[in-house]
Amino acid sequence: MKVLALVNEKGGAGKSTAAINIACAMHRQGKSVVLIDADPQGTARDWREASPSGLNLPPVVALDRPELLISSIKTLAAEFAVIDTPAKAEKMSASVIRIADVAIIPVQPSGADVWASAAAVKLIQAKKDLGGAIDAAFLATRISSNTKLSKQILSGEWNEYGLDMLDTAISNRVAYAQALTEGMSIYETRDGEAKGEIDLILQELEVAGWL
What we know:
By secondary structure, the protein is of the alpha/beta class. It has 8 helices and 7 strands, in the order βαβαβαβαβαβαβαα.
């Protein structure tokens, strides 16, 4: 199983939106994927419980304690796992990075998001220093192209961490929030540009050989 995790100690960075829609995009491609909800708040679980019947969505599994995550993830019958992680949970973040093959760090246009991302970067670097293999990149989220903060995030000038940033960003679109609230993915909405964003993110990950 290949494990992709969305991590950032900052709440509201867009982890759940990215995790849910990336998992759904992979599922729509025919990949065997499970969405793991590692957040005790249960956003991904709530999303799946709100889903209308008949939608073709990936399964969601709750593994919201570090010990449970480590012991149970290998028992899941899937080719890929996408993990939605909690905020302010250092022990869980460490456990997630320990098992992850790929770590994506969402950052919205906010200094707080950038500062909080340092904790995930340290965990990633510590794994590499110990000889572990992990690919990692930032993902800009909730971007509004006409704002100064968004332009600063997209410029990458703040990025002194030695990690790449994905070329594709997730824009600040109502469709993402609406889809999550209604238990759907972005693919069940009419927002073609949002669908294109998730498609391009997945394409980047595949071209890089991370999926």
